[in-house]
Design a protein that fits this description.
Helix content is 57%, strand content 8%. By secondary structure, it is mainly α. Helix 5 packs across helix 7, helix 9 crosses helix 19 and helix 11 packs across helix 16.
Length: 451
């Protein structure tokens, strides 16, 4: 039996981490933000369905619960059966910042009723935790003259002008590490200077919202990068092949794709071949259930499972904790689902960035190549360096995001005074780049207890 329920998996992972002692139901409840009763019911269900020789779930009155393993073989079989890592990491959406991104995605992109209780169940958090998250979201939205409202038949939703919603989306979702990474690591003159990534994103967002087309920030992110690279690719004389699956001109997605490229052509004076319309249509279909002609051979959940297993098998979670990076997972899976369709359709996609990625980030390029080769989904197919370089961008952004989150805050102090301290600051920023943040620069005699 494989546990697909994230709540059950989180409980088992926590028990595995603390297998040397008993863990109380209260401790487990606090860990996954739910009630004692829910924990006890979940453990009861696990105990009834677990059938692994040499493994027992022990419970003792007043002490709690503990996993018991007769030998190392039983321990390894348990881990493999329930797909648990040896080094504990929380499920991606359990983290506060990732929860906020997940909730805002639902409110601003999915255009479906968001019910408070259903959302709490989906995230495996208590109502009080979710209420706390919504307080933060209200503060964030208020800066854009937006508010959170709720109605009996509509659930929770964002209220305000459409242009204000778009401004918030541009700042919150597209000011993320993925675009920052492209701006920071790709030479400034690489992309078309007449149209920035942010302006492409604005055009895509406006056309999709005007057509009431559902679009997650991860699909938007992938689509914007594709269009930006397509502009460079077309100027270089490269074109993608026709898709083997033809899409009707009546499809909403195709109409939106045509409008997007028409607006971009108007600003950039660059014409796009019909294949690019088809391919943008494919990106727009990625959020909804793919049509029969473009149905993939593997589900999103299977793709997730394959990624987690590969990260753990290669030991990458010990170093980068990829499995707990919600933004990486969602963006990467969106990309890999369309990659699978490209491979099935034998579409060759030239990537103008391939040489730069291989030259400047060879370690990340070859790590990406190894990940794809070890994924069951792609192990039997040949993936070009162009495609590997595309996927590498996601890992590059994830690693930079981790550095950003783990950066040191530094106070630069110099006995020679402010001028010398400023020089010290410049030297620190040059040497360590974005691995630290110089919070302030002062002379030695300005140092006080507060500093």
């Amino acid at each position: 039996m494989i546990v697909s329920n994230s709540k059950e998996k989180s409980i088992l992972q926590f028990l595995l981490k603390h297998k040397e002692r008993f863990v109380t139901s209260k401790e487990l409840a606090e860990h996954i933000s739910c009630s004692d009763r829910t924990v006890r019911n979940t453990l009861k269900l696990i105990d009834q369905t677990m059938n692994i020789q040499g493994v027992k779930l022990i419970s003792k009155q007043g002490q709690g619960f503990q996993l018991f393993f007769e030998n190392q073989e039983a321990y390894q079989e348990f881990r493999l059966t329930y797909e648990l890592s040896e080094v504990y990491s929380t499920t991606s959406i359990s983290k506060g910042d990732d929860r906020l991104a997940f909730i805002l995605n639902k409110l601003l992109f999915e255009q479906v009723p968001v019910l408070f209780d259903d959302l709490a169940d989906e995230l495996y958090v208590s109502r009080s935790t979710l209420s706390h998250d919504f307080k933060k979201i209200r503060r964030m939205l208020s800066e854009y003259d937006l508010s959170i409202e709720s109605r009996a038949n509509k659930g929770v939703y964002v209220s305000g002008e459409e242009r204000d919603k778009r401004c918030f989306i541009m700042d919150y979702f597209l000011g993320n590490q993925f675009f920052k990474t492209l701006h920071y690591h790709v030479q400034s003159n690489f992309f078309d200077q007449t149209l920035s990534l942010e302006e492409i994103a604005r055009i895509v967002l406006e056309e999709c919202q005007d057509a009431k087309l559902k679009l997650s920030d991860f699909v938007l992110q992938n689509l914007v990068v594709h269009i930006a690279l397509a502009m460079v690719r077309i100027k270089s004389g490269f074109e993608i092949k026709n898709l083997s699956c033809q899409m009707s001109n009546n499809d909403t997605e195709r109409k939106v794709a045509k409008k997007i490229l028409a607006r971009i052509s108007e600003v950039s004076n660059q014409e796009f071949p019909v294949q690019e319309v088809d391919y943008i249509t494919l990106h727009l279909l990625a959020k909804s259930q793919l049509s029969q002609e473009t149905q993939t051979k593997i589900s999103k959940e299977e793709m997730k499972r394959s990624l987690v297993q590969t990260f753990q098998a290669l030991g990458l979670d010990d170093i980068y904790h990829f499995s707990s990076d919600f933004q990486l997972f969602e963006g990467l899976i969106t990309h890999l689902m369309t990659l699978q369709i490209r491979l099935d359709s034998r579409i060759t996609l030239n990537n103008p960035l391939v040489d730069e990625v291989k030259k400047n980030y060879s370690d990340i390029f070859f790590m990406t190549k190894e990940i794809l080769e070890n994924m069951e989904t792609f192990s039997q197919v040949s993936i070009s360096d162009d495609e590997i370089a595309y996927v590498s961008l996601h890992f590059l952004a994830a690693i930079e995001r981790r550095k950003e989150n783990d950066k040191f805050s530094v106070l630069a102090i110099c006995a020679s005074g402010f001028g010398a301290a400023q020089m010290l600051r410049n030297r620190l920023e040059t040497e360590f780049g974005n691995r630290l943040e110089v919070v302030d620069v002062i002379g030695y005699y300005e140092l006080n207890q507060e500093k």
